[in-house]
Amino acid sequence: QAVVDFERLGEHAAAFQGHDVGFWCLGTTRGKGGADGFVRVDRDYVVRAAELARAGGCKHFVLQSSRGANAQSRFLYLRVKGEVENLVQAVGFDRCTILRPAVLLCKRQESRPMEWIAQQFLGAVARVFPTAYSVPVETVARAMVACVLQPGQEKVKVLENGAIHELGKA
């Protein structure tokens, strides 16, 4: 495990050498970092890490994005997620898998009251419509690993929430 300073990723290029697969799940919120901080973490860090990984020999990059990602969206969150999807694809990996989960169901150490309420509601909805509006983070993690273990012909594969659930069952 290598600890890197994301503000100085170029100084940590050696940490990105010699890996066949790269997984990216890092993100923040606009509330924590402001709009500029959100863009820096959720787009700029991702693209820089992807470039370093590719230069270091990475062949398959697996990116956790978001349902509704769209570079033309009026909403900052969805626009940045769409932009980063496009930018990571442009890096030129042999394979790029993009996962677009809906609301992530997880336990957090920090307090986010509105998110907690949404998770409680969506957790109940998931009992009736298990793949419609949410996905447990454990399912996303299993899907990320499974997509690497399966042979793939596509250069870019996008997995929406239902496909994440299906792949994450294994």
From TrEMBL:
<dbReference type="GO" id="GO:0003824">
    <property type="term" value="F:catalytic activity"/>
</dbReference>
<dbReference type="GO" id="GO:0051170">
    <property type="term" value="P:import into nucleus"/>
</dbReference>
<feature type="domain" description="NAD(P)-binding">
    <location>
        <begin position="4"/>
        <end position="151"/>
    </location>
</feature>
<protein>
    <recommendedName>
        <fullName>Protein HTATIP2</fullName>
    </recommendedName>
</protein>
<dbReference type="InterPro" id="IPR036291">
    <property type="entry name" value="NAD(P)-bd_dom_sf"/>
</dbReference>
<dbReference type="GO" id="GO:0005737">
    <property type="term" value="C:cytoplasm"/>
</dbReference>
<comment type="subunit">
    <text>Monomer. Forms homodimers during oxidative stress. Interacts (via N-terminus) with elongation factor EEF1A1 (via middle-region); the interaction is direct and competes with EEF1A1 binding to guanyl-nucleotide exchange factor EEF1B2, thereby inhibiting GDP for GTP exchange and reactivation of EEF1A1. Interacts with nuclear transport receptors XPO4, IPO5/RANBP5, IPO7, IPO9 and KPNB1 as well as GCN1L1/GCN1 and LRPPRC probably through their HEAT repeats. Binds NCOA5/CIA.</text>
</comment>
<dbReference type="Pfam" id="PF13460">
    <property type="entry name" value="NAD_binding_10"/>
</dbReference>
<dbReference type="InterPro" id="IPR016040">
    <property type="entry name" value="NAD(P)-bd_dom"/>
</dbReference>
